[in-house]
């Protein structure tokens, strides 16, 4: 049977020792997040993930969701009870401001516990996950009445949320969308059209579903400039807050898909459904981006979370599976063979996944902290810097952690040999579930284009300069520290490659935009490598300081340093390859005519 144990010690090390959450006591909500409180919350989240969510992961995958003849959708057995337990624990509102019924704690903490929940059961966690994104959009763009009507129920989890962008002919290019909104005399709109691939679009776990829908108001301009955002509730909400008539939005079908079987991916038909404008007319895409940016961090988190579960299972199997003898002499003399964990090539896989996961966790929490600072700091300069870095990090986190999440789910599956390919050990599910994270919330190719085409040049390159400065300053500050040289040397080299590639884009992509498109995915991964390398250097520094101070976690901290060394020696050299590919430009990609393929 699959195993999962939430990596509580690692989370606490990052939050307390690497990021020093205590230092941010001036931010709203942070004063309550004392180390004791953090430990208690993270510990409780681990318990919920391991005991309530994880046992339903395999069965949820096998059973999947069903659309019934009456158009309702049934979710796997046990999901409703586990969902209720999750909501009753207040997890949806952990970081939501108290005025909307949340607990107002740091978003960083929300991200930390979100990893566990998603590792334990990604499909189930997508139901509240979509709600959290919708809550964020309503907080920023909703009217006071909309906030009062929807937020308390959504934060409590008795109502859920969805995001409706995709249509059959339009996914990435939302300017093509056709769903139409016709203004009514009472100020509402009649929404008509079809949305596809809508996660958690219909299900039986909540009393109401609040759909956030992109549509074009009659007469609005073509393209992205004419898109507005609407709230379309499944059941109308009466003045006193009670539920009224069923709205004319219905699930036409659920998709048969490769993974995340426990999450209902729905075709949603809007047939003059009553909707309410949220935010300004024709500014719907900007409003939806609040939800999408939050969701992109959530999807990056999913990539990490699956890789972590896959890793833990691969380690457990590698310790027990007996095949062959160690190259350096017998390690298991009482057995007919040694456990495969002795083989360097198996260790290559395990160390690679581990090194990415631990740095990925630090990157996720570092980014989440930037989000907290950007939204809560009283200091404008600090807010702006954090917001710049958050915007820059979002496509990298989404693209890199999900590309690697899938690669590493496959790597972990490989440790099982043929036993990973059959369903018994659950490894096939991790591979299948991880695959979607590379596609939704903007396919990873689009994340790379967002980074190169938008984020690099934004505000005269302010964000990228701030990032280079932060990493460069770290290397400089530690220049005199002998023990840090193995880490800072490799990091500085990677940073040089990244800066050279950035310069190459500036010189070669303006005149020939295909150069930017051709190098974008390599650039996103190059940036990811340097950022993860930076996380490793920060973790190495914290581990060394703690060891020098006689910290009781000696084995854990020494293992951190070994993994940091592995990352610097075995992973960071990839920056050279990425830079070379970028600098090769677009020519060999673009020379073929379309017919020649
Ligand atoms: C299981 C599942 C759940 C989903 N959940 C939701 C949901 O809840 N709500 C929702 O609205 N949508 C949802 N989606 C839709 C998802 O976000 C889209 O599938 C995704 O954004 C890609 O759109 P598309 O499938 O139309 O692909 P296309 O847009 O047709 O893209 C096809 C390929 O071309 C590439 N491409 C497109 N344009 C460019 C370009 N200009 N330059 C370079 N490459 C380009 C893309 O990267 C991609 O690889 C879900 C999808 C799935 C499968």
UniProtKB/TrEMBL annotation:
Q: Which organism is it from?
A: Neorhizobium alkalisoli
| Reactions catalysed according to its record | 3-(methylsulfanyl)propanoyl-CoA + oxidized [electron-transfer flavoprotein] + H(+) = 3-(methylsulfanyl)acryloyl-CoA + reduced [electron-transfer flavoprotein]
Q: Which UniProt keywords apply?
A: FAD, Flavoprotein, Oxidoreductase
- Taxonomically, the superkingdom here is Bacteria
Q: Does the keyword field hold Transmembrane? A: no
Start and end residues of each Acyl-CoA oxidase/dehydrogenase middle domain: 163-271
Span of domain Acyl-CoA dehydrogenase/oxidase C-terminal? 282-451
EC code(s) of this entry: 1.3.99.41
What family is this?
Answer: Belongs to the acyl-CoA dehydrogenase family.
Task: List the protein's name.
Answer: 3-methylmercaptopropionyl-CoA dehydrogenase
Q: What does this protein do?
A: Involved in the assimilation of dimethylsulphoniopropionate (DMSP), an important compound in the fixation of carbon in marine phytoplankton, by mediating the conversion of 3-(methylthio)propanoyl-CoA (MMPA-CoA) to 3-(methylthio)acryloyl-CoA (MTA-CoA).
Q: Which residues form the Acyl-CoA dehydrogenase/oxidase N-terminal domain?
A: 80-157
Any one GO MF term held by the record is:
oxidoreductase activity, acting on the CH-CH group of donors
Q: By its UniProt entry, which Pfam families does this protein fall under?
A: Acyl-CoA_dh_1, Acyl-CoA_dh_C, Acyl-CoA_dh_M, Acyl-CoA_dh_N
Q: Where does the record place the Acetyl-CoA dehydrogenase-like C-terminal domain?
A: 468-592
Q: Which Gene3D superfamilies match?
A: Acyl-CoA dehydrogenase/oxidase, N-terminal domain (1.10.540.10), Butyryl-CoA Dehydrogenase, subunit A, domain 2 (2.40.110.10), Butyryl-CoA Dehydrogenase, subunit A, domain 3 (1.20.140.10)
Cofactor(s) it depends on = FAD
* InterPro entries in UniProt: Acyl-CoA_dh-like_C_dom, Acyl-CoA_Oxase/DH_mid-dom, Acyl-CoA_Oxase/DH_mid-dom_sf, AcylCo_DH-like_C, AcylCo_DH/oxidase_C, AcylCoA_DH/ox_N, AcylCoA_DH/ox_N_sf, AcylCoA_DH/oxidase_NM_dom_sf
């Amino acid at each position: 049977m699959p195993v999962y144990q939430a990596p509580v010690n690692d989370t606490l090390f990052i939050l307390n020792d690497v990021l020093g959450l205590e230092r941010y006591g001036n931010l709203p909500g942070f004063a309550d997040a004392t180390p004791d409180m953090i430990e208690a919350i993270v510990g409780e989240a681990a318990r919920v993930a391991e005991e309530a969510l994880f046992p339903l992961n395999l069965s949820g995958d096998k059973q999947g969701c069903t659309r019934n003849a009456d158009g309702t959708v049934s979710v796997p057995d046990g999901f409703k009870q586990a969902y209720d337990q999750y909501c009753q624990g207040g997890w949806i509102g952990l970081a939501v401001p108290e005025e909307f019924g949340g607990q107002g704690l740091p978003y960083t903490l929300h991200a930390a516990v979100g990893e566990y929940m998603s590792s334990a059961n990604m499909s189930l966690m997508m139901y509240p996950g979509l709600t959290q994104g919708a809550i964020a959009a309503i907080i920023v763009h909703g009217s006071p009445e909309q906030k009062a009507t929807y937020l308390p129920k959504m934060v409590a989890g008795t109502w859920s949320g969805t995001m409706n962008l995709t249509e059959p002919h339009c996914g990435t290019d939302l300017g093509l969308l056709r769903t139409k909104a016709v203004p009514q005399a009472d100020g509402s709109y009649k929404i008509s059209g079809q949305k596809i691939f809508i996660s958690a679009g219909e299900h039986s776990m909540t009393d109401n579903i609040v759909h956030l829908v992109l549509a074009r108001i009659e007469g609005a301009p073509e393209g992205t400039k004419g898109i507005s955002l609407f709230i379309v509730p499944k059941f109308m909400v009466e003045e006193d807050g009670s539920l009224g008539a069923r709205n004319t939005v219905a699930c036409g079908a659920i998709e048969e898909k490769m993974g995340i079987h426990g999450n209902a991916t729905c075709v949603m038909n809007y047939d003059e459904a009553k909707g309410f404008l949220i935010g300004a007319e024709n500014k719907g895409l900007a409003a939806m981006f609040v939800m999408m940016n939050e969701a992109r961090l959530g999807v990056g988190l999913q990539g990490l979370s699956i890789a972590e579960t896959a890793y833990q299972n691969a380690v457990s199997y590698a310790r027990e599976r007996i095949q062959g003898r160690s190259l350096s002499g017998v390690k298991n003399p009482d057995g007919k063979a040694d456990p495969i964990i002795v083989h360097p090539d198996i260790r290559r896989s395990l160390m690679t996944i581990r090194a990415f996961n631990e740095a990925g966790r630090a990157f996720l929490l570092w980014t989440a902290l930037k989000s907290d600072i950007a939204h809560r700091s009283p200091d404008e300069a600090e807010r702006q810097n954090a917001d710049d870095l958050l915007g820059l990090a979002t496509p990298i986190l989404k693209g890199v952690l999900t590309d690697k999440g899938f690669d590493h789910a496959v790597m972990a599956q490989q440790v099982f040999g043929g036993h990973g390919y059959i369903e018994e050990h659950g490894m096939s599910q991790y591979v299948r579930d991880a695959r979607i994270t590379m596609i939704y919330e903007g396919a990873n190719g689009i994340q790379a284009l967002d980074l190169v085409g938008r984020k690099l040049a934004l505000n005269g390159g302010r964000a990228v300069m701030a990032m280079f400065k932060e990493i460069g300053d770290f290397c400089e500050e530690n220049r005199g520290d002998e023990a840090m040289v193995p880490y800072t040397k490799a990091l500085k080299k990677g940073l040089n490659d990244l800066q050279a590639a950035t310069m190459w884009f500036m010189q070669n992509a303006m005149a020939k935009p295909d150069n930017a498109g051709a190098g974008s995915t390599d650039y996103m991964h190059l940036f990811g490598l340097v950022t993860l390398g930076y996380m490793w250097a920060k973790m190495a520094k914290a581990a060394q300081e703690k060891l020098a101070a006689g910290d009781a976690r000696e084995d854990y901290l020494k293992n951190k340093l070994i993994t940091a060394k592995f990352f610097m020696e075995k992973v960071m050299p990839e920056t050279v390859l990425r830079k070379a590919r970028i600098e090769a430009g677009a020519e060999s990609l673009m020379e073929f005519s379309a017919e020649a393929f």
